[in-house]
Amino acid sequence: MPRNLPFLRQDFAASLVVFLVALPLCIGVAVASGVPAELGLITGIVGGIVTGLMRGSSLQVSGPAAGLTVLVLEAVRAFGLPALGVIVLAAGLLQIAMGLLRWGRWFRAISLSVVEGMLAGIGLVIIAGQVYPAAGGTAPDSGLDKLTGLPGALVEALGSRTALVSLALGAGTILLVVGWRRMPRRARAVPGALVAVLLAALATAVFGLPVETVRVSGVLEAVHLPGADALSSLADPALLGTVLAFALIASAESLFSAAAVDRLHSGPRTDYDRELLAQGTGNALCGLLGALPLTAVIVRSSANVEAGARTKASRVLHGVWLLLFVALLPAVLAYIPLAALAGILVHAGWKLIPFKSVLTLWRRHRGEALVLVATATAIVVVGMFEGVLIGLVLSVAKAAWEASQLRIEHSDDGRDAVRVRLQGTITFLRLPQILDSLEALPGDRRVVLDLTGVHHLDHACRAALETWAERHSGAVDEAVRSGTAPDRHKGAAAGSVSTPN
């Protein structure tokens, strides 16, 4: 074995596993996004070969992700398929700029509740939206309409033999994917999603099932290079907002995925800025080809690690296998039933919903759980971009609320001084509460104001406490007057104001 490729055997085997996992997902994500299936495969090829060759995360695998299907579908409906390439191209260039400015690490500052809420909302929309094609129908446009229209769609499907056959095919696909995890280890070497799609295609062909299959137009015919008209649409503020949403959401999903993948292996850690550059370069190329946007995909990445991959060669090779499939076997796509792909995506959407995280957060951090649920609900009701913004605003508001929390404790034994202890963060937002508490103290008693439990004291509060102390005694403790942080002093008297009356 060549010295410069010491892990070729492990990486070669892992690349085949990742290819088998990625193949049905690339096709399914494209169909769910309202674009030709070939565009999903092109994005998978770019994610494997181009992004895979670049530095950043060594074992993370990129391609079209279920997490962006809602956003892509909305963009295609609003601006048309020709504009998709321009949007993805501009988003990729924005990611490259953020990587060059070394902003990659700042994405780790996004609240995990917002990210999980975003994935939960996407998962709900995917599940609701894929039930319709599983029944041979067409899904409504908005996420809320998808959910509210489900009962009527299911009732209508019960009266149609064709719809029932299609639903049965989709349900069988889901059951096979879920049950495949109980198969022997050797059988599980072949991904359940691929087995389910192949069996559904075989059943459709052998029994002549009346279900709709993937429409094939050819890879070259599916490629749409951005034209002058599409490029001129960048002057549309609504389209620029979509570009920003693509860049931010794809970047956050990729970098959070990188953090998760780093916990799965003991190899080199992710360089977040370089990974953002790699993702941006891949998206810029996908945009030029008019393909889907790419992100790092945790399903493929975890499969890559579990299959024993040791270097980035595995993800590059998986892109090569996708390229060979597109070049040699594109006609195979025409045998794949849409109901089977819908079943694959329903399962993928279900896995996006963090049920365990919601329960854990509800027990320990209910504020975080509420942010997660509110973000998911807003995405379903309002839309993807607006839902994420609502989640971010709620997360910032929650952090500001917690940062401004203050405890005021009084102790009075009736003989010595009245002791008032402040704990927490003191900002101008809490100043009325503090002054009301101090001015309510008895005027004929000595008062000790203890600030040792204060983490932060802003200028407005410091000045107000000085004024209060001078009005009561004409003397102020030096710790308060000089602006020294209370926690730098030792002892109960440090950072306190003693005011004999």
Automatic annotation (TrEMBL):
The keyword Membrane applies. Signal peptide: none annotated. It holds the Pfam family Sulfate_transp. Residues 477-490 have a biased composition (Basic and acidic residues). Residues 420-458 form the STAS domain. It comes from Streptomyces zaomyceticus. Keywords: Membrane, Transmembrane, Transmembrane helix. This is SulP family inorganic anion transporter.
